[in-house]
Design a protein that fits this description.
Helices cover about 75% and strands about 0% of the residues. It has about 140 residues and is an all-alpha fold. The protein starts with a helix and ends with a helix. Helix 2 packs across helix 3.
């Protein structure tokens, strides 16, 4: 894979993440606190989708850098750590993305009717900022790769 191909693949993922964030904004309204189960499920799905996009990008970059990806039960956590270890993401961004990873794990194993807005709200509130920071880190890293 060339650097240009990597850039194109990452840009396609960022476009998908942007589409997910637009759908999230259609569900989550500022000041609203009373969400239906369906709205909470949609919110959780969009947060999960956005984090999946992050993982897709990290996998592509690590593959490009010939970093061996683990395949055991902790590979999601290891992927994020590897990204921090090679300087792709900062320690602060690693910590923030770890919150989304924890949510991802919860979401995969939970029932939608158990979702609670107060637990989704912090993730929803900072998703735009987090994705912008992640995109800037990726662009910078690929530019220096």
């Amino acid at each position: 894979m060339t650097r240009e191909q990597l850039k194109d693949q990452c840009e396609a993922e960022f476009e998908n993440i942007q589409a997910v964030l637009e759908e999230l904004r259609a569900v989550v309204r500022p000041g609203k606190t009373d969400y239906t189960v369906a709205e909470l499920a949609a919110t959780a799905t969009f947060l999960h989708n956005a984090y999946n996009g992050v993982e897709n990008i990290l996998k592509r970059i690590l593959y490009y850098k010939n970093v061996k990806l683990r395949t055991d039960a902790t590979w999601h956590k290891d992927l994020l750590k590897q990204a921090a270890d090679i300087g792709l993401i900062s320690n602060n961004l690693h910590a923030t993305l770890s919150d989304y990873l924890s949510f991802r794990h919860f979401f995969v194993h939970a029932y939608s009717f158990t979702l609670i807005w107060e637990e989704l709200k912090p993730l929803s509130d900072r998703i735009d900022e987090t994705m912008a920071e992640f995109k800037a880190a990726v662009i910078s890293y690929i530019g220096n790769a």
